[in-house]
Amino acid sequence: MRHETRICILTLGIAIAVIAASPKAALASDGECGAPDAPCTLEGGEYYVALPEAPDEPPAVIWLHGYGRSGKAMIQNSAYVDPFIRRGYAVIMPSGQPSINNKDLDWGVADGYDLARDDVAFIDAVRADVVERFGIDPSRILIAGFSRGGSMVWDIACQAPELAKGFAAAAGAFWEPMTTECDAPVHLFHVHGFKDRMVPFEGRQLTWEGVEFNQGNVMKGVDVWRRENACLGSAENSFGDDDSMQKDWMDCEAGSIRLKVTKGGHGVPEGWRDAVLDWFEALP
Question: Membrane-crossing residues (predicted)?
């Protein structure tokens, strides 16, 4: 094992028991806090936690999974958990809610169709609970996500920017009908694959379960943030060794925007998590 972590997943009303486990999320024995079948439960949902061997009040990443996944599945996925744990971050994995097919888990993204749960309020409740229960540093929280989870990150950043120091999304942005203004400036890091056909960079129309949806154009969404952050000047442009293209809007009245476009498809690029933490730790 490269390192040890503590996985702690609790139900309301029971004491927190900390266990040592491998990065592959070895489970606690029956009755102990830590098994993925014993989530932290809140009104309307649940979440899972992986804790690093770190001092009190660690920083945290609240990770929002893609469509059809779950917090339970993601907390056991070392590819998602390990890069954050290695850097001393707690990892919080909430589960989405039933989609319009009432089967797959999804997020209540602002896309013209209302699911049962208000997911901005739910993530607010998750954040408050982990701060109280696990001693997370509330000033060092990153909310990040992939695909529909990434779109939910954009909505949370827009509607409740106070919930995190920074927001990072991969392959998911605003849907239509797109907002034209948000509550306050934010620090946002967005990455998108140029060849993404599931969530095309330019957006698309699709029909799901008989309901029409429109994925938003990423650049149209970025312009919402440029106006909100008051950074309408030219971006600083750079290119990565992986042929990625990056635009940084740093000369803003408040907040900042980083947009990275890779040559890949729908996915989380290799090394993205460490790149996001480097960016997050450099924020003012």
Answer: none
